[in-house]
Amino acid sequence: MLKKQTYLYLFLLICVSSISHAQNPTEKSGKIQLISSKTNFEAGSKIILRFSSQNKKPPVLYCATNYGSTLISPTIAPKILSYEIPMHISNKSGTINWSLTTNDTSISGVLNIAPKTTVYSMETYLGPPSIEAGGRDFTMLVVIPTDTLDNPLKPQTPVLVKHQFLAHEISTEIKTDQLIAFKNIYSPNTSGRMILTSESFGKNSKEYDVNIVPAIPTNFTIRSQRNHHYADGNQITTFITSIIRDSLGNIVSDGTYVDFFIHNKKQAVLKTSGTTVMGIATAKMIHPDQEAHWTVKAYVEGVSESGIITINYTQVITDFDILFSKDNRTITVGPLTSFMNQMIPDGLQVVLTIRKGNTKIGVITKTSKDGFVKFNLKKGLYKKDTYSFQIRAAGITKNIHAKKL
Amino acid sequence: MTKNRNLLRAAVLLSYIAITLFLVYGVSALYSYLNTGADRSKMLHTELKKIDQYLPELSWAPLRNKGRQMDEQTLSEIENDYLDAWYVRHIAYKTNLKAGIDDYYTESARKNIFNIIKQNKLQKTTVDGTTLEHHVTLDFFSEDGQLVVLTDKNVLEYKRVYRNNTFVLETYETATYKIILLLEDGFWRIRHLIRTVVSKKDTFNTRKIDSTLTIKGINYYPQKTPWDMFGAQFNDAVIDRDFKIIKTAGLNTIRVFIPYEDFGKANVNARKLKKLAQVLDIAQTNKLKVMVTLFDFYGDYSVLNWTLNQKHLIEIVTRFKDHPALLAWDLKNEPDLDFDSRGKISVTSWLKRMCIVAKSIDKKHPITIGWSNAQSAITLHNEVDFISFHYYKNLSEFTTTLEELQAETVLKQVVLTEFGLSSYKGFWNLYSGSETKQADYYKNMQLQLKEKNISFMSWTLYDFNKIPKEVVGKLPWRRNAQEHFGFIDKNGKKKPSFTYISTD
Fold first, then answer.
1. Are A218 and A245 in contact (CB under 8 A)?
2. Would the N or C end of chain B have less CB density within 10 A of its end CB?
3. Could you give the count of Cα atoms lying within 13 Å of A82 in the half-sphere of its Cβ?
4. CA–CA separation, A345 and A339 (whole Å)
5. Scanning every residue of chain A, which has its alpha carbon at the shortest distance from the alpha carbon of B113?
6. This prediction's pTM
7. Hey, are the CB atoms on B116 and A93 less than 8 Å from each other?
8. Confidence class of residue A250 from pLDDT cuts 50, 70 and 90?
9. H-state helical runs in B286-434
10. Closest-CA distance of chain B to residue A156, Å
11. How far is B470 from chain A, CA to nearest CA, in Å?
């Protein structure tokens, strides 16, 4: 116990002498005495611990460092033991504790290794890589200035954080604390790309950039565009949004998804959608095949919406003929003519419903070709009997009762 | 001639079939081998089963970090990876191999470890180390969740250093570390690790056993379940009945054993703890004190298991440190028997550590180690609160042995925690033993004990039917002898020695 205290005082003495840079030999301590007195070093310096010793069998020096512990054998000059701390240990900043134990004495000490004062690299971490405009969102720049031997520099090392956005170039000084220096950089009001870099003692980091993405969309308007107002089931109506912007006037990011909901008179809902390019989203919808009144509204789901527009479609087919063949098994519907009495473009849906008495026994759906639709009633399916038929096309329904097959 | 030709044909045909079969088998084996790809779950580290391998005491300071707010999930991931980083490093320095380092250290950080491994390998130095306590503060968490800065204050490290497989030194160090960890490939990896040393010393005062109490005790196992007291056949009624016998016989203390593995190792089994609590409660109602012997049947003292051992110890001691029936903690039964197989340094440094941990938790009860003989009982006499030893040798030498031990450990009380004689009479000891001889032995011992005023605990209450082979081995002369150490025989009849179970 008493001995240990002696060593403690001894150690304190060493510390004091090292501060004054005096190379005083230390107090006597058993057989082995520490000669070297310096305890503070800069990383990368050669560290040799010298002891005076009468010992024939030199002890090994135990040494514990940042990453692990090791034993060091001495080189022996007459009565002097020199222990050279390996470079891979003296290269790292931190505290090394060592001890030398022989049978009758144990002597120990601490070496402090400070990082170098010059910066070699600026280890930089930036994230998140894209932030929302408007000054609420921010990105964080973390800088670890390190010296040539990969040691973080001492606390309070000044780091200059510089960032450029449009016409602004701003630099701020921050200081390292807990090995790192960090700064939160808040987004400007306009979208675009921000360039960041950092500097310490004249050493500059790489260039880093952050995308400033527009904030969430605000409400917008929509309009429609079509070739004609006829319900021909063939032409296409295009819905187009106004330029969608965020609250700060930035055009929203390309690819913002817009849904268009169309309600017709029967309260059925049709849906189409599109994504924005330069803030404008377009979506298409085929014309109805009968008179219609559409109300259309668009949404950026959960975020913003448009006003409502209404569109009317005029009926084009007012009437059509039905022709039965001799055996009544072939029914020809047509000609189906459009607004200028031209044959309606192919694809108009015609539905034939076949009933026997009051029971529905078949529905056949066909689309028009060259203005006509032909239904063939096969003998195998429709046995000889009396049937009634209903034909529906372009919102017009015609009934034919009691035809004998 | 034709016969030969037919034979030849048959041979050719058969060999053709054999070759074809072999080829088909070979091709199909190759085909099925090529169709077994890498298991995706293994590739993604998703199926790693967590086993307890490294559980040092770790506490987090309240979270007041700069930067992003920390969440529980991430914090526990950081904790796991950080401790694993220590663990792989301990293994690396113990074996001087690089396994596992890549997972827990970034490319620039691992170079430092490889340098030390390289040097240690060259000089045939190995370091068997562990960390026992961590006190971590989260200083900083980056906004993108990829970087943290930690301060690990007063990490208690234990290292045992060997050169050329010869022990050089052992050391406890308390150091503070600053750590930067980066999230890479799903691992929190150490990027920077910087150490600052602070020294700390554990000091503990010696506690004395209640001075008003002279222990008159007995080592106890139920008759039906020797060495398996807390097993499936645990029966509190039996224990209560036995304790009444013990109390009526004039004894005041029992010594019980806690098997380490049976109690669940690092994660102590709650049901076993409940049974132990029952035993202590029954002892309390019968006004008996209990000496609890820990780590029974544990024989691996390896440094890397210390964290698990201390967790076991902490859980049990914390649970029972305030129990009124508790008399003392016996850290380990006869650890000196492991000196040869495990090395004296391994065993004693382990005992020292467990002693410190037990004392840091239970500030009241004394700690001892149940040495198998008086000569070993000198070991660690500064660390324990009272000395305990076992004596199975000649009656005539007892007083001398005891006096020698007392002379060497003047300041500490000495307790005899095991002694006794088997009454076995049979082929294996040439019919030399007898119940009368046993009674004489106890009569004589009690006289000596009374004269020296020594606390004692005899071995044991009952004769046992079946001794587990882990206890005395398979040799019949040892097993048979061990079966007949009781004061009460297998039929429940008190032997003559029962008269001398206690001093009065």
1. yes
2. N
3. 9
4. 11
5. A67
6. 0.80
7. no
8. very high
9. 306-320, 339-342, 344-361, 398-408
10. 16
11. 39
